[in-house]
Design brief:
Elements: H1 2-20, H2 23-29, H3 32-44, H4 55-71, H5 75-81, H6 87-100, H7 105-111, H8 115-126, H9 134-146, H10 156-167
Bound molecules: fe (ii) ion (2 copies).
Length: about 200
């Protein structure tokens, strides 16, 4: 029985890991420019009055955006609509947008810049370093820009990142809720706990 287990299941299990390996996301998380911006965000939020824009927030938004796509069975649609190479490329594009969406938050603290617009510009420099192609870079940067610059004709990914960003914050239990300037633009219901 044990022999059969090794023969039949081990190759399958190995294959699953290989198929799901987000290699470009691993490179992004280890990229020096990416990490220098995350460090600047951390320095500006040593004593935060409101929500932090740290790596945990970025990963939350990436995961929630991916869940939003999956739970509506939209991954194949996204691959086709965005003309991506396949499901793995689509997952990496979604995660990259989530991981980069607030990368310029520190510049907003520093001099009031639009962190979404500036973040899109910074992302455009980082993404080719971790092997996203020019077409994927355009899709990701548009979503980073749109996460706080919403419009009627937003991109598919921009809408998901915007909603995932709102869903990622647990405003219902926040002691700053009464004075938070963003509280009225969030989905503050039990919906937050579904993701
Ligand atoms: Fe943001
Ligand atoms: Fe955010």
């Amino acid at each position: 029985m044990q022999i059969w287990f090794n023969i039949i299941y081990y190759p399958l299990e190995k294959n699953i890991y290989e198929v799901n390996a987000l290699k470009r996301i691993e490179l992004l998380l280890n990229d020096s420019v990416f990490n220098s911006h995350m460090q600047r965000n951390a320095e500006m939020e040593i004593e935060p009055q409101f929500c932090k824009h740290d790596i945990y927030h970025h990963i939350d938004v990436a995961r929630i955006a991916y869940i939003l796509v999956l739970e509506h069975n939209d991954l194949n649609y996204f691959v086709k609509e965005a003309e991506l190479g396949g499901k793995l490329a689509a997952k990496e594009v979604i995660y990259a947008a989530g991981l980069l969406h607030d990368i310029a938050k520190w510049k907003e603290y520093e001099y009031g810049a639009d962190h979404a617009a500036l973040g899109a510009r910074i992302a455009r420099d980082i993404l080719p370093r971790v092997f996203f192609n020019p077409h994927e870079v355009d899709i990701i940067c548009q979503a980073v820009y749109e996460h706080r610059n919403i419009s009627r004709d937003m991109s598919f990914l921009g809408e998901r990142i915007h909603r995932a960003d709102n869903l990622s914050r647990v405003c219902t239990k926040c002691p700053q809720r009464g004075i938070c300037p963003k509280v009225n633009s969030k989905e503050i219901t039990v919906t937050n706990f579904e993701y």
